[in-house]
Design a protein that fits this description.
Layout lengths: L3 E6 L10 H10 L4 E4 L8 H11 L2 E9 L7 E5 L6 H27 L6 H6 L8 H10 L6 H9 L14 H10 L3 E4 L9 H13 L4 E6 L4 H14 L2 E5 L21 E2 L1 H7 L1
Length: 277
């Protein structure tokens, strides 16, 4: 019988709407064989997720989604690492401080656009110590400045929009190094969101491979069949592994179902076998 996985999921420890244990239980209900919890810039939910997985009989591997500084929107997934390594713990403490600084900068930019929210407004939307654009978008929605979370991102908060502020000073190269020092593997997430042409993307992946990049997200909710073919061929040509995930956030991303994305994802367990070896 075919076994399927989801290696890109989020919980209330970052910007999801289900707790780590609820994400794992849902994965079990959906018949998945394994998942990775990859909250943004935090590992706070991993122990809970792993313990729940052991209790109900589903494999949970460690994961994180790093926001990295680049000339575009870029995220790196760390998978199957040791959560007790000092390298990853130290950088996450620093990134919490960076997120707080970023929130104040976004507030200032929004004020210049006639949108007035406060840090307290953002904190009211937080379910963990990790706060960022999702909580800012919710505060904007609650105050009536936008009609949806999507509008907040599309008009103000996404890369290239008037209130976008880079969330991290962590370089892709340093993120890869930290993941490796923690005995994990590094994958470039959702390639379609980088906004790069195929030529630019190939050059980027080649450069990052030299810095130790292990692979790319070859299966993803937003990919078309044409994207699947292009991205996986790039990975094969460059010598990169594949990962895959739904980018599940609960109700914060409608239509992104755990395991299946928008209904057509089937991520084979064989990818995880290769990642762990």
């Amino acid at each position: 019988m075919n076994k399927y996985i989801d290696l890109h999921t989020h919980s209330t420890c970052s910007d999801g709407t289900l707790s780590p244990s609820e994400v794992v239980k849902l994965a079990k209900e959906k018949g998945l064989s394994a998942i990775a919890l990859t909250d943004h810039d935090t590992i706070d939910g991993l122990v809970e997720a792993i313990e729940t997985g052991r209790a109900i009989g589903i494999e949970v591997i460690t994961g994180i989604e790093f926001s990295v500084a680049a000339d575009t929107e870029m995220h790196l997934l760390g998978l199957d690492f040791d959560i007790d390594c000092p390298a990853i713990k130290n950088i996450l403490d620093e990134m919490i401080i960076q997120r707080d600084i970023r929130n104040y900068k976004v507030i200032e930019l929004l004020a210049g656009l006639g949108i007035h929210i406060t840090i307290d407004d953002i904190l009211k939307e937080a379910t963990s110590k990790v706060t960022g654009r999702s909580q800012i978008a919710k505060a904007m929605l609650k105050k009536g400045y936008v009609s949806s979370i999507k509008e907040a991102f599309d008009r103000y908060l996404s890369f290239g929009k008037p209130a976008f502020v880079e969330r991290s000073t962590l370089s892709p190269e340093d993120a890869i190094r930290i993941i490796h020092e923690s005995h994990g593997k590094a994958f470039l997430a959702h390639l379609n969101q980088t906004g790069k042409s195929d030529e630019e993307l190939y050059k980027l992946l080649t450069q990052l491979k030299k810095c130790g990049l292990d692979g790319i997200e070859g299966y993803y909710t937003e990919y078309t069949e044409e994207m699947n073919c292009r991205f996986r061929k790039m990975a094969d040509d460059i010598g990169l592994q594949l990962s895959g995930g739904s980018d599940f956030h609960g109700t914060n991303k409608d239509g992104y179902e755990l395991g299946t994305g928008k209904g057509n994802l089937k991520i084979p367990y064989e990818l995880l076998d290769k990642i762990k070896n």
